[in-house]
Each structure stands twice: as C-alpha cells, then as structure tokens.
Amino acid sequence: MNNAQHDYVPEDTFLTAEREAEFNAKKGTWFFIGFFGNILGILIASVYEPIPPASRLLGKTPKFTALYTDAYIAKGRSVQLRQSAIGLAVAIGLAILFAILTS
Fold it and tell me: How many domains are contained in the chain?
C-alpha cells in the first residue's frame, strides 16, 4: 500500500459519523436526564463522552479513526446537550404552568 492509499479518508467520513451519532444517541434518556436533573443534567450531558462503536473503526486507517471519532463525539455531545436542554425547558415550563394554575 502506498502513502496515497494509506492516507485516504472518504470525504463523507465526517457526515457518516454525525449521522450515526445522531441515530445512536439515546434521546429519550437525555431528555429525562435534563427533565429530572435540571442544571445538573445539562452538566452531565456536556461532560459525558459518547463512544463510537468499535466495529466502525476496525481495519480503518488512523486518520479515518481520528476523524470519525472526533466527529462522532462532537455530534453526540451536541445531541445530548440539546435533548437535556429540552427536558429542562419542559420541566421549567410545567413548573411555571403549575405556579400559575395554583395561584
């Protein structure tokens, strides 16, 4: 294998990693972490690092592995934060609605 073949990284690696991270994210779980965890839930979502499936990285070049892993983690965190923020917003909205209805 020459250097040109070894350094080849498919152009859609980034998009594939993002699509798979979006699909694999446990959106309902992160929603409830934000709903019940409030600010702590958002903090957990921003710190927790999703791990890409090892099967996607087997036999791939180091360049592909690095790009795929970085893109997967970034998109996974983004989904986690978005879902936990939605959960927090719903919790706050319900608390405000409850306060209005009981006053």
Answer: 1
